[in-house]
Each structure stands twice: as C-alpha cells, then as structure tokens.
Amino acid sequence: MTALHTNPLFSRLESAERVLVAGAGGGFDVYAGLPVALSLHHQGKEVHLANLSFSALEGLPLDAWLAPDVAVVTPTTSLHQTYFPERTLAQWLDLHGYPSTVHAFARAGVQPVRAAYTALLEQYDIDAVVLVDGGTDILMRGDESGLGTPEEDLTSVAALHGVPRELAPERLVVSLGFGVDAHHGVSHGLVLENIAALDADGAYLGAFSVPRTTREGALFLDAVAHAQAHTADHPSIVNGSIAAAVRGDFGNVQFTSRTRGSELFINPLMSLCFAFELDGLARRCLYLDRIEHTHLIRQVSSAIEAFRDEIVRQRPPRRIPH
Predict the structure, then answer these.
(1) What's the pTM?
(2) How is the chain split into domains, by residue range?
(3) Which of 27, 100, 150, 194 is surrounded by the most beta carbons within 10 Å?
C-alpha cells in the first residue's frame, strides 16, 4: 500500500532499472507515453520506446530489423513516406539530447506482435513495460454500445498478457486522453463504469495530471508541436487534443483541418493519466481469448465482429450527469 503523497504508478516502477514504454494503438500513441517515459528517464532509469506502427514498415532496409515484426527506427532511418511517427519522434528526441531510438512493431495479429515484444524484452533485459493508449479504447470490455477502434489496442494487451512473467515482471497500462474517443462512439460514462470495476478488482492504480508547468509537460507540448509541423498532412487529433488540454484550452478548439465540421470538447480531464495493471485489464476483456491465435490484424477485426454479433444485449451509453 502506498501513501497518499506518492504516485502508485511510479511506486510500482521504482525498483525497475530498464523500462519499455510502448504505444498500444498505433499511429502517434507512443507520444502519449512521453510524459511517463521522460519522467522515468529523468529519474535515471534506462527507458526504451516502442510503438505499434501504421507506417509501411515493409519498405525498411533489412538491417533495420531487430527481429521479425519489430524494427529499430532512428532519426535517419530511410522510409519513403512522410507519415512515419516513429522516425519523427526519434528526430525530436535527438534534437533534445535524449536516446533517439524508437522501435516499431508491424501492424499484425497477437502471435507475431507477442513474438516481437518477446524479442525486444530479451534484447534489453526489460524489468517493466508501460503500455500506453492515447484515448480510452483500451478500457473497453467488448459489450459496450461503442468500442471505438480497439483492434490494435487489444492486440497489444493480449500480446503482452501472454508474454512469460519472467520477461516482464511488471506490466502496466496508462490511458491518457479521456474524452477524445467520443467521435468514435465511445461512451465515457461506460469508461468510468469500467474504471470503477477495475478499481473493485484491485487493478486500478489511480490517476494524475500532466501539467504544462512540469518539465515533462512542457516537453510533451514541444514534441506534439514538432510532430504536427513535420506531419502537417496528417497530424494526430488525439495528441493534439491532449496537448490543447495540457495548455489549458477549453471547448471547441480547432487545431487541424482534419476536425473541420466536428465540435471538439477540449477539457482538463484529457490531461489525466489513468493507470492500471495490465493483467487485471486483460482479464476483464470479454473477447481476449477470441483473438489469441490471430496472425493478421484483419483476423483480430473479424474475431471482434463475430463476438459482437453474439452479444444479446449491449450495454447502452451511460450519460454523465450535468
């Protein structure tokens, strides 16, 4: 049991010397892990970064691959496309004097992603993994009225859940960006209900904010601004929303043409990191066994769709009183 003045997430990571912080859902998810990763680095820990990638990794040279389905991305890694969040982050890290390698997992099913995680954990002798979701899709059980886009998030959860315990003694989940998945049909009233259930199970580790007045908060804002400038044709809506919340913006704050026609609700809850035990979260997912033996991401999608077709009654959206 921790004291009120300590943070349960960082208390769980206190004895870890080598930590992997990984984006669960692809795209720019690894950016949502930067506040935690940078804080761990500033504490003197060896921190490695990874991300389930949406980029065309098959175009990478052969010497970029650490193992099948996991590539080593540096500031100078060659890939002929502008959308490459892992390289963009590596370039930002290099500009600020941080270790500038970001590992990229191929967008695949549970079995190859698990093998890729295993190779990475063995390569760096990792003590702890922090899996990060930009948003709240990762907290959906499967019987909710709307799941958002859970395929990649739960592939990552299932992959890590099945890794032998000795390879990653501590495995945690952080969700940053409460509210950003509303446009994907996620009911955040149900998100709160799920968090309460995880708390009752002992798997919830509390929440903390990412203030812009902290070193890590300021660096996160800088990293997101750098990414938006270097991926102007496809900036991250999720991290742009989180960054706006960290800046203290509120309401319908439009920061990219990608949200034109949509009404945003930027608010302080988006800057909260909700932390959980990964295994406890995995146990509450109702379809995790259905995706266990998948090799392709489309197999994950099909398995989730088949599960959803069998649900007699979905949990309806839960309104947050106002």
Answers:
(1) 0.95
(2) 8-213+269-310
(3) 150
